[in-house]
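Example: Peroxiredoxin.
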Amino acid sequence: MTTNTASARYEGLGKDGKGSISTKSGVLSEQPYGFGTRFEGKPGTNPEELIAAAHAACFTMATSFALAGAGHPDGTLDTQCTVTLDKDGDGFTVTKSALTLKASIPGITPEDFARIADEAKAGCPISKLLNCEVTLEKSLAG
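Written out as structure tokens, the predicted fold is:
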């Protein structure tokens, strides 16, 4: 079993409050977040951006391991993830996580690539965690 931790602190409440996020590894250390970073494009991060980063990283790693396990030891995977936050009554809901994969895998057929990528999307732990629509667009160079 693997566990990881992160923490968040919020000073002041509501729209005027300001928060910070930190991770055990230190990759994020008191990274600012709040209403402005989430809804107004101000510098800092927000929960949806962090989810998108986690989903892109997890899916890309799952795809990499699946490709290697299928006998494809070399290649490049580039994934972008867009997480959508929609108004839901008085609150908000994450409604979609859209993965876009661009890959270059020598010697793979388009059919094998599509199957492996789809299986990786379904098996990725972050895909399993998310309670929203998860989509995948994929393209194979060469």
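The mean pLDDT is 96.
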